[in-house]
Amino acid sequence: MPLPLPLPLPATPSSQTLKIGIVGFGNFGQFLAKTMIKQGHTLSATSRSDYSDLCFQMGIHFYRDVSEFVSSDLDVILLCTSILSLSEVVGSLPLSSLKRPTLFVDVLSVKEHPRDLLLRVLPEDSDILCTHPMFGPQTAKNGWTDLTFMYDKVRIRDEAICSSFVQIFACEGCKMVQMSCEEHDKAAAKSQFITHTIGRTLGEMDIKSTPIDTKGFQALVKLKETMMGNSIDLYSGLFVCNRFARQELENLERALYKVKETLLQRMNEDHDQERAGS
């Protein structure tokens, strides 16, 4: 009796190989580049600092001349700058050197700011995809599976290019969340910004591990260390460039005041009871 044939492997969504140029080749740009290279995409990069040696080792063409980079016939230009420097960096790109309509993608932790800027300065025939990978080199050191990738198709004419780029994250097992830039910033102000704020507040208090740490306190120490490990530019950008962050900061201040008032009221009630019983 013949042996049964092996079952076919599940089909993976088709996507084309992309020519991706990264603007800003710092830690996060390098982090994304490793996976994109692994998937077979062709990468190039440009940055204020000279990463030519590192790019050579990774198989990436590094452009010192931004004009040559922009005119190198790219499918995608991926903006991996800091939040606060995005306007300056995009403003320095010689967009007239673009040879054809190109998909511009940002990966910033705020979304309305890059959306508005790119809509204002890019050529009309340039597509815009605003994204936020909700992870980084530390949180995704064991892979991207089940980690959230948010995206908003702000202005897309070439669906094939856009779909192929989004598929980079879907193929790695990310949780794909499509939402508007406004919805993202509302949610991020309540989550990411507050998380950074609590971590930096604990840093200002200089909390440290003790011999009698509870699990909860250990989590707070880890939060402090993680948040303080991020640049102050990132934290400032989460506040300055997210119009919903100020309200959440005020909400946090009111909540802390309310908690303090509750404790003082309880303390006064206990003192009153003690005096009444004496």
Regions with little confidence, pLDDT below 50 for 5+ residues: 1-14
Number of strands: 8
The total tally of domains equals 2
Strand order of the largest sheet: 3-2-1-4-5-6-7-8
Provide the CATH topology of the largest domain: Rossmann fold
Distance between the termini: 96 Å
Measured as a percent range, the helix fraction is: 40-55%
Mean pLDDT: 94
Q: What is the gyration radius calculated from CA atoms?
A: 24 Å
- The CATH level-2 architecture of the largest domain is identified as 3-Layer(aba) Sandwich
CATH class of the largest domain: Alpha Beta
Tell me, briefly, the overall form.
Answer: elongated
Major beta-sheet overview: 8 strands, mixed
The number of helices is 10
| Strand proportion | 5-15%
GO molecular function: arogenate dehydrogenase (NADP+) activity; prephenate dehydrogenase (NAD+) activity; prephenate dehydrogenase (NADP+) activity
Protein name: Prephenate/arogenate dehydrogenase domain-containing protein
Keywords: Oxidoreductase
Organism: Psophocarpus tetragonolobus
Protein model, in words:
α4 runs parallel beside α5 (112-121) and α7 (181-204) crosses α10 (245-277). β1, α1 and β2 form a beta-alpha-beta unit. The chain has 10 helices and 8 strands. It has 2 domains: 19-179, NAD(P)-binding Rossmann-like Domain (Rossmann fold), CATH 3.40.50.720; 184-268, no CATH class. Helices cover 48% and strands 14% of the residues. It has 278 residues and is of the alpha/beta class. It has an 8-stranded mixed sheet with strand order 3-2-1-4-5-6-7-8, sandwiched between helices. The termini are far apart. The chain has helices at residues 27-38, 52-58, 66-70, 86-92, 112-121, 159-170, 181-204, 215-228, 232-240, 245-277, and strands spanning 19-23, 42-46, 61-62, 76-79, 103-106, 127-133, 148-155, 175-178. The longest helix has 33 residues, at 245-277.
